[in-house]
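Open question from group meeting: does this chain pack into something compact, or does most of it stay loose? Before anyone orders reagents, we agreed to write out a predicted structure and look at it together. Recording both the input and the output here so the notebook holds the full record.
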Amino acid sequence: MALCAHHHGVVRTSLINTDELKLNAGHPQGSRWTVNDERALAHSIAQIALGQWRHLESILANARIISPALPVFSGSAKDLLVTLPGTEPWHRDGWLFQCISWIAAAESGVGPLRPPHSIWADKGFDGLQLVLSPSGDEVERLVVFEDKATSDPRGTVRDEVWPEFEQMARGDRNHDLVSELSALLDRVDNLDVRQATDRVFREGGLSFRLAITIADPHNSDAGISRLFKGYEDKVPGGHSRRFGHVLYLSDLRTWMQALADLAIEELDALEKLDQVANV
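Structure tokens returned:
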């Protein structure tokens, strides 16, 4: 459902439409994503490329206090959106999909996010998000993201995602998560840090979120169920430990290229506005 968010009297339609997946027990909670406005999405990706993620996060989460936008330096930002002649666009497209996943998470408004990656194929976690209690003074869980833009979704899930999730579910990456969790906790006022850390690592508060592109073979409830087969074996425990989201793209490469081109146009427009404002 496309929810309309209100901010300072302005009605804003969500960039990413999320329709709940109706899957059998044992499969993840999740949604089917569709893009409501590709131009608006490209504008948000341009802001991420410029390093203006905190300003964007404030807007997407409908915060009462909006962080100021930073000056526009579009030259290096464009490097994230172009590929060299003769090279495959996999890394660029993977970064674009990470941005889409981050935007969808920011629109959920459930808690602060790790900043988006500022380079292609950055090591570490694709994304992290704290889920706060409705009162905002307790941590309910930490969600670890895996974001995959791929033409082979099932192979990617089976051979890349499940081994990563299985390793983290065993606790093998807790040492990496501790510093990331600390940085997120620093962004929330009046939290008991020790209690929050115990909640995540000792009380089952670590959850996993797979976002992945799909094409025709998986574009049905049965196809998505096949795609997520084995999730509950790799990440055992309650239903709320497993999340799965899909974005259907009939032609992944063409769509990503068009989105990158739009984002470059938005970068140029933002730079012109910044120049006019500073004349």
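Observations to bring back to the group:
The first strand starts at residue 4 and ends at 7.
The chain has one domain: 19-277.
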